[in-house]
Request: fold
Amino acid sequence: NNIRALFEDEEGFIWIATEDMGLNRLDPMTGTVAVIQKNDGLFEDGLHKMLLDDYGRMWFSSNQGIFWVQFDHLQQFANGNRNRVHSQYYNEQDGMLNREANGGFQNSGFKSKDGRLFFATQNGIVVIDPGQIDTQTTIQPVILDDFIVDGESIYTGDTETNLTKNQRSFSIQFTAPFFTTPDRIRYRYKLKDFDDDWNDAGSRREAIYTNVPAGTYQFSVTAGLGNEESTSIETTHAVIISPYYYETTWFSVTIFLLFGLVIAGGYRLRVRHLIRKENVLERMVAERTDDLRSEKIKTEEQAEQLRILAREKNRFFANISHEFRTPLTLIIGQIETLLDSESDRNKKLKLNSVNSNGKKLLSLINQLLDLSKLEAGKMELHTKKKNIISFLKNHLFSFESLAQAENISLYFSSARTNIVMNYDADKMEKVFFN
Reply:
């Protein structure tokens, strides 16, 4: 929370230089703060003073020297559009009497009207003319010094290095022929198809790799002074690592073919098993179908036998009914003749009783004949329009004497006295009596 300097840019952002927490950008509209520190490419986190020159560079003083960063790079980083910034620093090697700058409660730097920058240090004032800063310093391509495997040098100076299948860990040493301020040189390297992005080595002049898979790679390295304008041309070197037998293409193809054969063999076995199972099921279905067919034939034969028995039964009942009906009709005729000629009241009552019972027996025989017709499908209805109320009432009171004998009260009730409808009187009588 120790603030050393403040600066408001043209967009209204407030830039805050802190004692040990790097550079902060405050957005007054939202209250959000973006932090830029040494891990992000800032030369130092302990800042004293910051000044923006006329060339788009933000200058900072610190206890380790004076440095600058492209201001648009700082904005891009704070906006999340850049992963890292680059710092260009100056110390005793560049003419400063003491790299340690001053700062605190008093103003420790300012920008003059002619654009020069003034910073306070432990040994006086440092004056910087930004217009004289050369950002186009030429750096020659990086030179590979050595290629080391298991502590032994195998570098031959060729453009490629071949490693055996057991040599999966190695280191590459390099240097840049820049003698003015060699300690400022910053290196970046990358092993293509192994590294996802560039590795920032700082001033370290060695790249170390372990457990690199077999394959052909291209090692690239560049050198610079911490800014994009002074980066050297890439130096490349091919690295070829021989594979184990199980890492070769032919091994993978062989495994793939074997796997395919196993799958095909398994598929054929499965199909064969399914065919056998299908055959067994077909035999079972055929056997069951034969059994069902036999059962059906047997059932049809039994049904036919039952139909024959039913026809014989109907024929028997029809025949015997006819045999009973003829003599019974003759008997009833004789009784009715006697009734017409008999004058004795008692005898006449007895003859009426015999005649009534004879007619009832004849009715039962007729019903047997109707049953035979019904089962043969030859029953016919002979309907006429009649009053069903009077029909039912007359037949009900035919049971009056039987009801009196059994001490039963017999009544007939209807909301209407006349309902005319089509019905077969003979069939309706049978329904009512039953």
